[in-house]
Specification:
The structure holds two protein chains of two kinds.
Chain A: E1 4-7, E2 10-14, E3 19-25, E4 32-38, E5 45-51, E6 56-59, E7 62-67, E8 72-77, E9 86-92, E10 101-102, E11 106-111
Parallel strand pairs in A: 2-11
Antiparallel strand pairs in A: 1-3, 3-8, 4-5, 4-9, 6-7, 7-8, 9-10, 9-11
Chain B: E1 5-7, E2 10-13, E3 19-24, E4 31-37, E5 44-50, E6 53-57, E7 64-68, E8 74-78, E9 87-94, E10 102-103, E11 107-111
Parallel strand pairs in B: 2-11
Antiparallel strand pairs in B: 1-3, 3-8, 4-5, 4-9, 5-6, 7-8, 9-10, 9-11
Classes of the chains: A mainly beta, B mainly beta.
Amino acid sequence: GENVEQHPSTLSVQEGDSAVIKCTYSDSASNYFPWYKQELGKRPQLIIDIRSNVGEKKDQRIAVTLNKTAKHFSLHITETQPEDSAVYFCAASKDSNYQLIWGAGTKLIIKP
Amino acid sequence: KAGVTQTPRYLIKTRGQQVTLSCSPISGHRSVSWYQQTPGQGLQFLFEYFSETQRNKGNFPGRFSGRQFSNSRSEMNVSTLELGDSALYLCASSLASPRTQYFGPGTRLTVL
């Protein structure tokens, strides 16, 4: 079945620097890739998503890129701020059953 | 619209007991998914219900079960509780497919 690997498990960056989290998926039929952010003690929330007919999508300081050939997609956060500290989860799904397959999560730490 | 609600928010049980958790989705949402989250762990998928039918199921033992009512509210039941069942249980609702999920605040279950 589908498998999603997420790296790194922990990422520590200086405030103001950029952060990149990468996910790889195994099922080439996957065509929807969302990213969720879970702050400490809170519920996961969708922050950005991308479909396979698009190579890149941006929303202010965050962007997601998709490489269908290599079967990986990445979350990019620029000009990181303290409020970006959280656990980020990637996921993948396909049209046949829409079920989200989740990555293991990345804990992002923003150092002041 | 009101968000996803879960009751109770906190629960303490002892080994061998059973527990029922409840999830009320966003009005109009027909898909409800359940997840188990333990400290430092990701989102472990339990099952997904759509129109009162279990549509997808994760790799959990039969002690974990669920159901969905005609108003889309969902319950999950864990029988013969084990210490390892201590976790945050999250439910998430979606309009139809479980691709864009809105999470509830979770129920924190402690098994003593």
